[in-house]
Each structure stands twice: as structure tokens, then as C-alpha cells.
Specification:
7 helices, 0% strand
Length: 135
């Protein structure tokens, strides 16, 4: 979703912005901010630098990714949590009806369909068809 909410020049970063979670745990952002999770944040930052280098992306995540991720977090909280967890959506950007429709389509995918959609989006952004072409 994030790759579809950012300018085309940032789309690959948008697609890969959570790539570290394939190797580390997926920890909700509000929890990640806790002091006790500083080592996790450091490991995540180091891993994301390696991923950026591998995929020839800018070493620093573009600001548009952060904004789109916050919007996606709000959609996720408001559309999947009933009711949303207090304080998780305060100060997060508003989203449009189109963003909601996009999120619902993505959220309802099974894992194989999601993998296929991810790879199709990667090919759309980079022109590379298979993982062997990624480098």
C-alpha cells in the first residue's frame, strides 16, 4: 500500500520499507518507540541500510515513505481494529475513500496472493521480472 501512496520516485522504498520485518519481528510502531526496544531499532536501522544498498535505493528512507506509512497505519487501525486502540490514530494523517478501498483489497489477500501482488509491484517499479534479476 505504501508504494502506491508515494511519488513514483519513492515507490521502491515504499514497497521495501518494512523489509527488515522479514528477518526481525514485526513490532507495532507505538511499541517500537519504548526505551527497552532501542536495540531492536538499532538492528532494524542497520538491516534497512543493507537492504537499501542491495536494492540500489537511497540510504535514507525518503520522507514521503514515513507520511504514507502513517496514513496506512491509520487506515489499518480504523479498518481492522474494532474499536481502534486509543492513541494509535491520534495525530495520524487522514486518508481518502480510495485509500480505504485500496487497503481493504490488500488486507483481504491471502499470503500467496499477497506474494504475487508484491512481486508484480516490484516488476512494475523496477522492470525486473524474477528475483535473480533483482541485483
Amino acid at each position: 500500500m505504501v508504494s502506491l501512496l508515494v511519488p513514483a520516485k519513492d515507490a521502491l522504498w515504499g514497497l521495501m520499507h518494512d523489509a527488515s520485518e522479514a528477518y526481525l519481528l514485526d513490532i507495532p510502531a507505538p511499541l517500537k518507540k519504548m526505551d527497552a526496544l532501542r536495540p531492536y531499532r538499532e538492528a532494524e536501522a542497520k538491516l534497512m541500510r543493507a537492504i537499501a544498498l542491495t536494492f540500489h535505493m537511497e540510504s535514507e528512507q525518503p520522507e514521503s515513505i514515513h507520511e504514507a506509512d502513517l496514513k496506512a497505519r491509520r487506515v489499518e487501525a480504523e479498518e481492522l481494529m474494532s474499536p481502534p486502540v486509543d492513541n494509535w490514530t491520534s495525530n495520524l494523517p487522514e486518508y481518502s475513500a480510495n485509500d480505504r478501498i485500496l487497503f481493504k483489497r490488500i488486507a483481504n489477500m491471502g499470503m500467496y496472493q499477497a506474494e504475487k501482488a508484491f512481486l508484480a509491484r516490484y516488476e512494475e517499479i523496477t522492470g525486473c521480472k524474477t528475483p535473480s534479476e533483482w541485483r
